[in-house]
Design brief:
By secondary structure, this protein is α/β, with parallel strands linked by helices. It is built from 22 helices and 21 strands. The protein starts with a helix and ends with a helix. The structure holds adenosine-5'-triphosphate. The site of adenosine-5'-triphosphate has 19 residues, from helix 10 and helix 18. InterPro entries: AAA+_ATPase (IPR003593), AAA_lid_NorR (IPR058031), Homeodomain-like_sf (IPR009057), P-loop_NTPase (IPR027417), PAS (IPR000014), PAS-like_dom_sf (IPR035965), Sigma_54_int (IPR002078), Sigma_54_int_dom_ATP-bd_1 (IPR025662).
Length: 589
């Protein structure tokens, strides 16, 4: 499509205005010899091809103005394809140029003797007018080209900003948002569309933001974003043009995410069998077995209660295996929504389902290629995915969701569960054939209460780590606490021990951890001791709420506030993790 065609309406308007001002007809032809605008007889010829070898053709080819008034139907016209039928009594044609290229022609046309007379009388004036009209159209074309280029550049900038894995916001001198990328929207948890954010004041989104250039330094702050707080590391830079500030760029990352990335790196990089602490016979026996199993490629099934160290074992086995320099990829089958689990495991082809990325996505199996895939909470793998996993284990190839080409994968599988898989098989909650495929090397990790003195050895180790993590002096257990620890049954195992020690080490004022430094539930003995006298003084609704709050508080103290802790709480209370989150929210815990 020609530039003139894009501006067709505007060109027709210019033609009509000129025609009524000058009492002469006007027409415009584009570089493809198509009539774009016209008045008089040419109003009926719009969008049609112009006659061949006409005067307009010559102007398009030579780029020079042509005038034919006196010699109409003479030499200049004799090769024109409409020579015989032409009704023109005179014409003047001027090229329309962009960057020295002829992109069309504008002409003044006389169709009768009156118009021709006018053309003759006002010859100089009309010539000037025609050149000016060509110039007006050239300017309009230039503006359109510039706007077009700006739109393209804007789209490119948006694409570049969006592809950066960091929150980016650009604001103008009035502190209004001109650009925001998807990552920024995600970190800030803004739930309205991008279009509605552009033009808004940055302060209406992050109300405590101090917009001062951070001079290339990264600062840490907690931003108040509508109803929540987001801890970020950010940098602010003023963007200058000719020494004038034109806008301000705010780049930021959520601290939580950075810590998670760092944790993932350190976890997989440093963990080996030396990190599994304990001297008890039951533990050392399973460690020995695991070291032998690490040398093979066989599938391992780790069973044991929550917090006994199944993931720790899986990482240590990977670190001791021939795959140690390849990826260790973990996926928790219980914490990923059922409808997403298949694509998380196997990946998906582009456009496989609504909401899928247009580029498609690689799954955990492919990510773990040549390395180890740890399938945590395998007992929670939905029944409909079990045959698919079985097929992958048998054929050693995956098919992405929405695809049909098998992809070869070389992955060592380690899976884990706190559930009794054999019983689950009996109850028809887990396929027998899959169970046998996974249970090639079963390793059972004993609970902490059955590991003789391991609780004290682990405590030493954890207290050492805590003094570094919390930046405090090394703490020791009092004799009473040691006795208490030896008799307590540790339902949350080593994870619970870690939580209890972190609580106590943070709160104890001396280097000795005493009974009173332990979380309340330790000396309250059990949940049975929760006092509900005070809650009975209010309405039934309020007392029920208060009682629930006390119970949940008890369990949070016991198992900690981490996701794993919450999973254990949900399990003990016989509710789903989602229900637990809703309750915690309702009860403002
Ligand atoms: N023997 C051990 N020595 C040192 N730390 C341990 C030991 N066992 C477990 N831990 C620590 O306890 C915490 C819980 O361990 P891990 O996540 O491996 O347990 P898990 O059995 O996989 O739990 P879940 O079944 O809830 O997923 C981790 O911080 C881990 O480092």
């Amino acid at each position: 499509m020609s530039y003139l065609k894009i501006l067709q309406d505007r060109i027709q308007q210019i033609s009509e205005d000129l025609s009524s001002a000058l009492s002469i007809d006007v027409t415009v032809v584009d570089e493809n010899f198509i009539r774009i605008g016209g008045t008089g007889k040419y109003a009926y010829e719009i969008n049609k091809c112009c006659p061949e070898n006409s005067l307009f053709h010559r102007v398009l080819e030579t780029g020079n103005m042509e005038i034919n008034i006196e010699n109409i139907k003479g030499d200049k016209c004799k090769n024109c394809s409409s020579y015989k039928s032409c009704k023109e009594t005179g014409n003047m044609a001027c090229p329309i140029k962009i960057d020295d290229n002829v992109v069309g022609v504008i002409g003044f046309i006389a169709f009768d003797m009156n118009q021709r007379k006018l053309m003759e009388q006002k010859y100089i004036e009309y010539q000037k007018m025609l050149k000016r009209a060509a110039l007006i159209i050239e300017n309009e074309l230039m503006n359109m080209k510039i706007t077009n280029r700006l739109n393209i550049e804007m789209a490119e900038i948006n694409e570049i900003i969006n592809s950066i894995n960091k929150g980016i916001i650009i604001i103008n001198s009035e502190e209004k948002i001109t650009h925001i990328n998807s990552k920024a929207i995600k970190i800030l948890g803004i739930n309205f569309s991008k279009d509605r954010i552009i033009g808004k004041s940055i302060k209406s989104i992050v109300n405590n933001l101090d917009i001062a250039d951070t001079q290339n330094k990264e600062l840490i702050d907690t931003w108040n974003v509508t109803e929540k707080n987001v801890k970020v590391i950010y940098q602010i830079k003023e963007l200058m043009l000719n020494k004038q500030k034109i806008s301000t760029l705010i780049g930021f990352d959520e601290i939580k995410e950075i810590i998670n990335i760092a944790m993932n790196y350190t976890k997989s990089d440093n963990i080996d069998f030396s990190c599994i602490i304990g001297n008890s016979k039951s533990l050392t026996k399973v460690v020995e077995k695991a070291k032998i199993a690490a040398k093979s490629d066989s599938t391992i099934l780790l069973q044991g209660d929550s917090g006994t160290g199944k993931e720790l074992f899986a990482r240590a086995i990977h670190a001791e295996s021939r795959r140690k320099n390849e990826a260790f990829v973990a996926i928790n089958c219980a914490s990923i929504p059922e409808n997403l689990l298949e694509s998380e495991l196997f990946g998906y082809e582009k456009g496989a389902f609504t909401g899928a990325s247009t580029k498609g996505r690689i799954g955990k199996f492919e990510l773990a290629n040549n390395g180890t895939l740890f399938l945590d909470e395998i007992g929670d793998l939905p029944l409909h995915l079990q045959p698919k996993l079985l097929r992958v284990l048998q054929d050693r190839e995956i098919i992405k969701v929405g695809g049909n080409t098998p992809i070869k994968v070389d992955v060592r599988i380690i899976c884990a569960t706190h559930r009794n898989l054999e019983q689950l098989v009996r109850e028809k909650g887990f396929r027998k054939d899959l169970f046998y495929r996974l249970n090639v090397i079963p390793l059972y990790i004993p609970p902490l209460k059955d590991r003789e003195n391991d609780v004290l050895i682990c405590s030493e180790y954890i207290l050492n780590k805590l003094s570094i993590k919390l930046g405090i002096s090394r703490k020791f257990l009092s004799k009473e606490v040691e006795e208490k620890f030896k008799t307590y049954d540790w339902p949350g195992n080593v994870r619970e021990l870690e939580n209890v020690l972190e609580y106590a080490a943070t709160l104890s004022s001396s280097s000795e951890i005493r009974l009173e430094d332990l979380p309340e539930y330790f000396y309250e003995k059990s949940i049975d001791n929760i006092d509900c006298k005070d809650v009975l003084e209010c309405s039934l609704d309020e007392s029920t709420k208060e009682y629930q709050r006390k119970i949940l508080k008890y369990y949070i103290d016991k198992y900690g506030n981490s996701t794993k802790g919450k999973k254990q709480i949900a399990k003990e209370l016989g509710i789903s993790l989602a229900t637990l989150y809703r309750k915690l929210d309702d009860l403002e815990l």
